[in-house]
Amino acid sequence: MHSEQLVQIAINALDDLKGKDILTIDVRGKTSVTDFMVIATGTSGRHVRSLVEDVMLKVKEQGVIPLGSEGLEGGDWALLDLGDVVVHVMQAAPRQFYDLERLWQGAEQSRAQTLVQE
Fold this sequence. Notes:
Interacts with ribosomal protein uL14 (rplN). This is Ribosomal silencing factor RsfS. It is globular, with a radius of gyration of 13 Å. The chain has one domain (3-111): Beta Polymerase, domain 2 (2-Layer Sandwich). Helix 1 packs across helix 2. It starts with a helix and ends in a 7-residue tail after the last strand. A hairpin with a 6-residue loop joins strand 3 and strand 4. By secondary structure, the chain is α+β, with helices and mostly antiparallel strands. The protein has helices at 3-16, 45-61, 92-98, 100-103; strands spanning 20-26, 36-42, 68-70, 77-81, 85-91, 108-111. The chain has a six-stranded mixed β-sheet.
């Protein structure tokens, strides 16, 4: 599966469960760790966990096995490693504190556009 398709699956899953301020950062050529980062805000620890778990479910339905996840037990910030795509979901305060958008300000960033399924 192409990275862009994986990004769109993650975005749609996050949007379906009302993830806030979904942002995609294209880090190809800027790091060897991943191609894209998808960042979203959850409103509570439970919401953060639910968002990440739903992304995990949706990618597994497409035959993609996540490489790992972190932070699901805490709920302030959870990470899902899909290889070419890393999904960060955090509550508002940690998102503002760590400010990944500013850290990757030289990379192309775009607010999420969800696909309309017909």
